[in-house]
Structures are given as C-alpha cells and as structure tokens.
Amino acid sequence: MSLKHLFSFGRSMHCDAVMAVLQSYLDGETDVDTARKVARHLDRCADCSIESEVYTSIQHHLANRPFEIDPEIRARLEAFGRSLAHERPGSA
Ligand SMILES: [Zn+2]
C-alpha cells in the first residue's frame, strides 16, 4: 500500500485552502499533516498544480540569480526602453 493510498481518506482540501498555504508549503514551513494534504491536492488538481509550478519556478529563478541587477545597468535599460518608445522609425 502506498503512502498516497494511506492518506487518501479523510477530508480533502479545497483550492482556496491550498492557495492560502501554498507558499508556506513550498518553503517547507507547513506542518507535516498540511504538507501531505497539499501534496495530495496538487496531485489531483491541475489548477493548483500549475500554480505551484509557477511559484517553484519563480523561487528557483530568484534563488539562482547570482546578484541584483546593477542600478546603473537598470537605469540604462530603462532609458533605452524609453528611447525606443519615443523614437519609433517613421518609414517602417
Ligand atoms: Zn486545487
């Protein structure tokens, strides 16, 4: 008997409840019982599963970013973006 089967009885969580604790769950801050319920729900609910993947990928992204963007570079990019917005090629 798998663990999944073992915990398949009892009340299941609603999407709202899962969303409320999803971030804590992904951070490993929920208690074991809640973590099990969330994991079980994610296994069955495509919507919440996608949501958790988005969270995970964002966290992964943030965790792997070696350093903050240099403010000077950011300012240059913003200025570049503004110049693109204002200087549209007239002939094309
Ligand atoms: Zn759900």
Give the CATH level 1 class: Mainly Alpha
Task: Return the domain count.
Answer: 1
Main sheet: strands, sense, barrel? none
H/E order of the elements?
Answer: HHHHH
Strand content: under 5%
By DSSP (H or I, 4+ residues per run), the number of helices equals: 5
Sum up the structure in keywords.
single chain; mainly alpha; Arc Repressor Mutant, subunit A; 5 helices; binds zinc ion
Describe what you observe in this structure.
This protein is mainly alpha-helical. The chain has a single domain, classed as Arc Repressor Mutant, subunit A (Orthogonal Bundle). Helices cover 70% and strands 0% of the residues. The chain is built from 5 helices and no strands. The protein has helices at residues 3-6, 15-26, 32-44, 46-64, 71-86. Helix 2 runs parallel beside helix 4 (46-64) and helix 3 (32-44) crosses helix 4 (46-64). The longest helix is centred in the middle third of the chain and has 19 residues, at 46-64. The chain is elongated, with a radius of gyration of 22 Å. The protein binds zinc ion. Residues 15, 18, 41, 45, 47-48 line the site of zinc ion.
